[in-house]
C-alpha cells in the first residue's frame, strides 16, 4: 500500500477475496521485520506481560468460577427455600470475591493493552520507519479517543451477549428454534467484534471516537464484510483454541507445576502475545487497504498506508 494513488479518473481495481486474504497474512510479516526495532520491544514489554496477566487471571479465577457454578446448581436443586437462600447468599459472596479479583487485574491489563494497541497500530499504519519518539507522540495524541472507544466497545458487547441468552431462555423447550438462534447469534457476534475492532483502529488513526468511529469502520467494510467476517472468525477461533488448550494443561492437581515448568504453557503464553500483535497488525492493514480503496482519486494517503 505504499504506492501513491494514480491521479486519474479511472476506477480503482478491486482485489479478489484470495488477494485480500494473502495481503492480510503477508503484509503484517513484512511490516514486523521492517519495524522490528519498535515492535520487538512492544512485544517484550507490553504484549507478553499482558498475555501473562490474561493467563494468570484465567488460572486464579477458575476455582472461584467453578465453586460459584456448583453453589448455584445446588441451590436450584435444593429441597427447601431456606437452604437455597443460604447457598445463594454464599454464591453472591464468592461472586463478589471474583469481581474483586478481576478488578485487581483490570488496571495493569488495561494500561498494557492500550500501550500495545496504539504502538502496534501506529507502526503498522505508516509507510516510513517510525521511531520510539514518533510512537510516543502518537500515543499522546490518540490515547483518550482509543480509551473512550474501547469503553463503548465493551459496553456494546456486554449488551449484545445478553440477547442470545434471553432468546435461549424463552425458547429453551424448542431445540429446533434454539439451534438457529445460537448459530445466528454467534455469527453476528463475530461480525460485531470485527466492526468494533476496526472502529478502534479508526479512533487511533483519525479524529473520531466512540460510535462515530464504529460508523466509519462499518462504512469502510462495504464490499468486504464477508471477507473481514472470515478473518475475524479465524482470529477468534485461534484465541479460543489457546484458551481451551491452556485450561486443559493447567487443569487438575498439578496446575501450579504446569504453569511454572510446563513448556507448552510457556509456548501458549508466547503464542498468545504474538497473536495479539498479529491481530492488531491485520486489522490495521485491512483498515489502510479499505481507506485507500474508498478514497477519491488523487487523495494523498502516504501518511496512513501500510
Automatic annotation (TrEMBL):
Any one GO cellular component localisation term in the record: membrane
Positions of transmembrane segments: 38-59, 103-121, 142-161, 181-205, 226-246, 266-288
Key words, A-Z: Membrane, Transmembrane, Transmembrane helix
Protein name (Swiss-Prot/TrEMBL): Transmembrane protein
Species of provenance: Gossypium hirsutum (Upland cotton)
Amino acid at each position: 500500500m505504499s504506492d501513491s494513488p494514480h491521479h486519474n479518473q479511472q476506477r480503482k481495481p478491486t482485489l479478489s477475496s484470495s488477494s485480500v486474504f494473502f495481503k492480510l497474512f503477508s503484509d503484517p510479516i513484512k511490516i514486523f521485520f521492517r519495524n522490528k526495532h519498535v515492535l520487538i520491544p512492544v512485544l517484550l514489554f507490553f504484549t507478553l506481560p499482558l498475555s501473562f496477566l490474561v493467563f494468570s487471571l484465567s488460572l486464579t479465577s477458575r476455582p472461584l468460577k467453578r465453586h460459584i457454578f456448583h453453589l448455584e446448581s445446588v441451590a436450584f436443586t435444593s429441597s427447601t427455600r431456606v437452604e437455597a437462600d443460604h447457598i445463594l447468599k454464599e454464591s453472591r459472596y464468592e461472586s463478589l470475591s471474583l469481581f474483586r479479583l478481576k478488578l485487581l487485574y483490570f488496571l495493569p491489563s488495561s494500561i498494557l493493552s492500550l500501550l500495545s494497541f496504539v504502538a502496534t497500530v501506529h507502526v503498522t499504519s505508516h509507510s516510513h520507519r517510525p521511531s520510539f519518539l514518533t510512537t510516543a507522540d502518537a500515543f499522546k495524541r490518540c490515547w483518550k479517543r482509543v480509551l473512550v472507544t474501547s469503553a463503548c466497545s465493551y459496553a456494546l458487547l456486554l449488551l449484545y451477549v445478553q440477547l442470545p441468552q434471553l432468546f435461549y431462555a424463552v425458547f429453551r423447550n424448542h431445540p429446533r428454534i434454539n439451534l438457529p438462534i445460537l448459530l445466528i447469534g454467534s455469527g453476528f457476534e463475530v461480525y460485531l467484534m470485527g466492526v468494533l475492532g476496526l472502529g478502534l483502529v479508526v479512533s487511533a488513526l483519525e479524529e473520531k471516537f466512540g460510535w462515530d468511529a464504529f460508523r466509519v469502520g462499518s462504512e469502510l467494510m462495504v464490499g468486504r464484510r464477508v471477507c473481514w467476517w472470515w478473518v475475524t472468525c479465524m482470529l477468534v477461533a485461534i484465541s479460543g483454541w489457546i484458551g481451551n488448550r491452556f485450561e486443559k494443561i493447567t487443569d487438575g492437581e498439578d496446575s501450579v507445576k504446569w504453569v511454572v515448568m510446563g513448556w507448552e504453557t510457556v509456548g501458549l503464553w508466547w503464542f498468545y502475545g504474538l497473536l495479539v500483535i498479529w491481530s492488531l497488525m491485520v486489522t490495521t492493514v485491512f483498515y489502510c487497504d479499505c481507506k485507500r480503496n474508498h478514497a477519491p482519486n488523487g487523495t494523498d494517503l502516504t501518511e496512513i498506508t501500510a
